[in-house]
Amino acid sequence: MSADRRRLLSRTAALEGVGERAVTALGDASVLVVGAGGLGAPVLTYLAGSGLRRITIVDRDVVDTSNLARQTLFAAADVGRPKSVCAAERVRGVDPELEVVALQEPFRAEHVAGHDVVVDAADSVEVTRAISDACSRAGVPFVWGTVLGFDGQVSVFRDAGPEPVDFHDLHPDALPDEGSCALDGVLPALCGAVGSVMAAQVTALVAGIGEPLLGRVLTVDARRWRWTESPLRRGPASRRPAPLVDDAPPRIAPTALAERLRAATEAPGTDEDLVLVDVRTPEERATGVIPGSVLPDALDSDDPRPVVVVCASGVRATAWARTARASGREATVLDGGIEAWRREGHHITADADTIAG
Length: 357
Description:
- 33% of the residues lie in helices and 17% in strands.
- The protein is of the alpha/beta class.
- Strand 1 (30-34), helix 4 and strand 2 (54-58) form a beta-alpha-beta unit.
- Helix 4 (40-48) runs parallel beside helix 5 (83-94) and helix 4 (40-48) packs across helix 9.
């Protein structure tokens, strides 16, 4: 270990009961962080200087101006750049000896291989279930956190050992994502508080610095800043839920959608005809909409045309499309959302009042 890295870790090593043993354990560990957003930012900030051997960052999104208040790894100059790449640059800047891998892609089960701990900072029930299944098969513990509005939770799951506990013990039903920061808001500082606890769970698991939240769920109410703890145990009837039906609605790239809209304009009533459904908030739509879009409430249930669902980046559109497909409607998601559409230079009308609704 270089003198610079030893100095970087000096305050950790000075803790009572830590010393060289814990520093060595950290230096041998590899951690996968899924999500570099509101939770991933504080997690990565503190893990960057913790002395780990390797950090892998998985995030498919790019930086948006709305992220900057709570995703403290990023600056205005990063808008439009991949989050994983920006986050990796910041982490390397703290500890040049740390191996950092940036993956701009959705989480896949094979990402878990070769890591000692997984951090689920994606804040998505769907992603968490995928992480839970992958970690269970690999025998790897994972740290989970979530924030929405004024509420947050943190826990640690390990589906191995004498007292196994997993995410499905906390949420046994395979429900889709409900709510989002864009729809319901989130207190920026809450992301930092929950993310910091998540980072501390990694060092607890890897090096025994503190006691991990295994079998415990820590909940915070940021209106009153009250922290409560609830026990979590696996019951005799515990089960791993079956995957959601139609778990991945099809996606269409912005360029392909633009071409299809052009074809529909030139030949209305053909197979190219479709309906654009914008599921964003009024505040988001005020920044511009794709011409011809309608609000969900304005969609005629008898309209046989397929729909393409639009949100900011694709997360909410995926949830909406899944529900629509379950009811028998053909629904596709605009891949990357309005952010990707805008980045590729496709037409947006600035008059949000033109949207049908």
